[in-house]
Amino acid sequence: MSETWLKMTACDLGRAIGAGEIDPVALTETYLTAARTHAQTERIYARFTEDRARAEAKAAAVRAKLDQRRSLLDGVPISWKDLFDTAGIATEAGSALLKDRVPERDAEVLRNATAMGLVCIGKTHMSELAFSGLGLNPVTATSPCVNDLDAVSGGSSSGAATSVAFGLAAAGIGSDTGGSVRIPAAWNDLVGLKTTIDRVSVEGTVPLCARFDTIGPLCRSVEDAAHLLAALEGGTPTDLTAASLQDARLMVLETVAFDDIRPEPLAGFDAAVAKLEAAGAMIERHAFPEMEEALSFSGTLFSSEAYGIWKDVIEANPDLMFGEILNRFRSGADVSAPDYVAAWRRLEEIKRSWNAFIAAYDAVILPTSPILPPNAERLMTDSDYYVTENLLALRNTRVGNLMGSAGITLPTGVPSAGIMFLGLPNSEERLLRLCAAAEAALA
């Protein structure tokens, strides 16, 4: 039975705990054993929090017996990306620059989740300082894609995704600045939720770009995403009952999203769209020419803010960094203040136009990534390949970050090919309901 637990959704595990069918202590030990003994463990987990997990599981077991559970996910073990502060446990953000950094208190989202009864079993590997969509990290570890052990898993929440995909956590919590939840979720056939900027607290989270950083779950179902969002906020989960695609209006974004797309992601997307249409959704296809201009601001806005935050730490010990990541940070040094201000002013104009343009639709849809997970060894030896694949990997997801959208990626049935749904800012509840129906159609 315990092997079955490793494949269940977080919500199904929670229901079984509530029904007295699963003991949270036994569940946590099952996950810890699986994670400790898995062949890919060292590439997925940076460190375990076993003492904490066992104490939290025991408390959850007591609450379950007393019928005092704090949430549906009370007693369910999940993993945390190694940029969320954990009291007394190292939080290094995948970087040698932060080696042996031990916070004194938990990040706010971890405090919220713990208060809702979730069990923290460990910290997962990630791209160095979260600045890559590939998940390649020769400094700490490169997590493998569940569909190809020689390929990267996507970043920067690489271990968060693979901890779930390999059955080593019931769900993972990651961050998304340019696609860092949605890319690894898509490449490992999971559901990934990108939240609206400032909706979920980033207090106690190692930053990359404060004006773009968001937090969200990587999990096995849309229902899991809804309940994990509630746990992160300390709130109430969205009611997903009776969700339907009937007469839902979906807009396929044609601008940029399909440029240089590989055959497999395109096939997955096209097949998914056909299923959505068969389930009653109305599909329209439109261009939004200003999106190309918005995407051109990525280097100006992301790199300059990231370097502004990290330049003193980086330049004190640049040799500790992977060269490609170091170069990406340093590119922000060349951005002038007037160019940065002008880019933000123009981006805000485009965002207003975009939100007015998509307001009539239930969601905008596009391939989550135009490429499949690249080969890790080639990324290490071919710099041009690294740059090309890194930029392509994040191109479609950056649409959501630049426009301030809520976003969800769902598996399409084609391995490592996801379909992304984008909505207006703070439309998570509406988007989760829509994606619950889409998930059923795609299954």
TrEMBL record:
Domain Amidase, residue spans: 27-432
Protein name: Aspartyl-tRNA(Asn)/glutamyl-tRNA(Gln) amidotransferase subunit A
SUPFAM superfamilies: Amidase signature (AS) enzymes
GO molecular function: transferase activity
Record's keyword terms, sorted: Transferase
PANTHER family according to UniProt: AMIDASE AMID-RELATED, TRANSAMIDASE
